[in-house]
Amino acid sequence: MKEVGVGLYNDDQLESKLEKYLEENEMKRIIEYKNSATQLIDQQSQDLRALRKTNKIDDFRHMELQKVLNDFYVHQGKAERIKKFPFPRQYGGTSSILVAIFIFLVPFGFASEFSKLGPNGVWLSVPFSILVSWIYIIRELVGDYSENPFEGLGNDIPMLSLCRTIEIDSLEMLGDENIPPAIQAKNGGIL
Amino acid sequence: MYVKKNFTLRGVLAFSWFHIVWISAWSLIGPSLFYFIDPEWLDIPWLPISIVATAVAFYIGFKNNSSYDRLWEARKIWGAIINSSRMWGAVVRSYVSDQFDPTATETTLKMHSQDFAVQAYRIIICVEKSVTNPYRMGAREPKQTCKKIGREADEGSWSRPL
Fold first, then answer.
1. Is B136 exposed, middle or buried (0-12, 13-18, 19+ CB in 10 A)?
2. What integer pLDDT is reported at residue A33 of this predicted model?
3. Are B131 and A17 inside 8 Å of each other by CB?
4. What are the Cα distances from residue B147, in Å, to A21, A61, A68, B116, B142?
5. Are A112 and B46 in contact (CB under 8 A)?
6. Where are the domains of chain A?
7. Which residues on A lie below 8 Å from B6 (Cβ)?
8. How sure is the predictor about A24, in pLDDT bands with cuts at 50, 70 and 90?
9. Which distant-in-sequence residues (6+ apart) come within 8 Å of A123 by Cβ?
10. CA of A163 to nearest chain B CA: how many angstroms apart?
11. Taking the model in full, what pTM does it have?
């Protein structure tokens, strides 16, 4: 999985890039917090207050702007509840056990069925056992990999490319000239 | 996210070759017992195994459905984050003005255009940090103009000449 997608392992897209949009003192302070995103939005609220104080916005606009920030808190909370609450392990774990029991039984059942074909018929059961067991294993694995969508794996939510979309849109609104390129797929994966 | 239309056979094998190895080894044991020893008690009927197979298939089917729900909910949240950040950009750009400032001059007009720049830049960070994953930052040269704009909101930096 390591060579799939731009940005995770080989392209070094790390937190040090925070300095792009934050002043140095502020960046050091923000990184110290347990939950930097929460604190950043809180600071945005303080900025809005300062804007209100200097009459750059009136009360009504202040409320509207704050409402958008509150929306961000809602989204953050929703994302965190997926990230921090695992898929209930009683469901996830039991299915592996059931699949293991089934795969344990399959060769014996098939061998006894295929032995009806003659003395050498049992060997024909081998490819069928492999096929059936493999199908169940694959089903189990596919479910396992979908459980946690924020782990940076090949099938996860492409957060890097979504963030880049946001970055591009915001910078274009501001009329910035250095628009970063959109994240491209690498070996069939977008992260 | 995988973007091609189909998985290749090679990709599937790369994903599961390890399992195929041990499944093959295990699948040889049953037939070998039958062929070389052939104990009569081992001649188990297929029916109980097929009942187990059905039960397991149902269970995994429902479990995978729930797993998919988590993935899809995550995607919906990120869609909402994109919408909100566009909203934020547009709203900050249009709402922050000198309309309500009786002392507005040419100089302050220039200033607040940088005010909203700071605001809009900052939300990019919020969004990028929001899923607590340190791998998510975009790589680019530091934005000099933005870095130059000091940020001391508590001291009322919005009225400070830039």
1. buried
2. 84
3. no
4. 7, 27, 24, 14, 8
5. yes
6. 1-16+150-191, 33-86, 89-147
7. none
8. confident
9. A114, B31, B35
10. 6
11. 0.74
